[in-house]
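lol forgot to send this yesterday, sorry. struct tokens for the thing we talked abt
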């Protein structure tokens, strides 16, 4: 089990790292919100312990970005401010639990264990990129809050792109996953479906999320700000 700690206060960070390591976890510690976000997105953690007040990006921003990019590991927030608005805000953004500083290490460890037990069985109900949302339970798609009607193939295609966000998906993989067929270069069924999907989710909105990489395939990702 691998845990990421994002905490800028030296003593608290060191203490958490040592305690969780002694409890048998593999622990990475970073002291800055940007580093935290990058590690959370690129490495595979079972849980993130996230301080709210951080240099770089604050805890809210880190949480929002990792959720937007489809990462659903449990997140335990550490906050010095025991205020109801903070809790509500964090939970809306997708935090799983809260701990108010100062706390006893045994309390943190108990919460971590509970979250890890829960987290293993939790399948996301929604996939999301920027303001595009796909609700897996209700089979609904919205962009900027606006309902978008998709055919079942377009829905499956968008689901695949969102689940594999940031990865370049070759046509052969899309063909086998969405159409259940072997890729045949004579067919333009993927191009046609992709064009229709983009017309619906990208044409009237910014930023454009789906890109074609000539000769390689397609990728859905939030473009880096210029
Ligand atoms: Ca802090």
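and heres what i got for the seq, position by position
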């Amino acid at each position: 089990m691998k845990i990421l700690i994002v905490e800028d206060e030296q003593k608290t960070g060191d203490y958490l790292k040592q305690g969780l390591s002694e409890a048998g976890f593999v622990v990475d510690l970073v002291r800055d919100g940007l580093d935290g976000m990058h590690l959370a997105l690129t490495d595979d953690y079972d849980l993130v312990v996230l301080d709210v007040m951080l240099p770089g990006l604050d805890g809210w921003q880190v949480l929002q970005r990792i959720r937007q990019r489809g990462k659903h590991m449990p997140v335990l927030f550490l906050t010095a401010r025991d205020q109801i608005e903070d809790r509500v805000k964090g939970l809306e953004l997708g935090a799983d639990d809260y701990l108010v500083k100062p706390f006893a290490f045994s309390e943190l460890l108990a919460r971590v264990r509970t979250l890890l037990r829960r987290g293993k069985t939790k399948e996301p109900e929604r996939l999301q990129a920027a303001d595009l949302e796909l609700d897996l339970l209700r089979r609904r798609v919205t962009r900027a809050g606006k309902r978008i009607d998709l055919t079942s193939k377009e829905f499956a295609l968008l689901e695949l792109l969102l689940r594999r966000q940031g990865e370049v998906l070759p046509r052969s993989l899309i063909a086998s996953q969405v159409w259940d067929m072997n890729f045949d270069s004579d067919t333009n069924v993927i191009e046609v479906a992709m064009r229709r999907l983009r017309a619906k989710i990208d044409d009237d909105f910014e930023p454009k999320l789906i890109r074609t990489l000539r000769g390689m395939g397609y990728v859905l990702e939030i473009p880096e700000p210029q």
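Residues 8-9, 51, 53-54 surround calcium ion (CB under 6 Å). anyway ping me if u want another try
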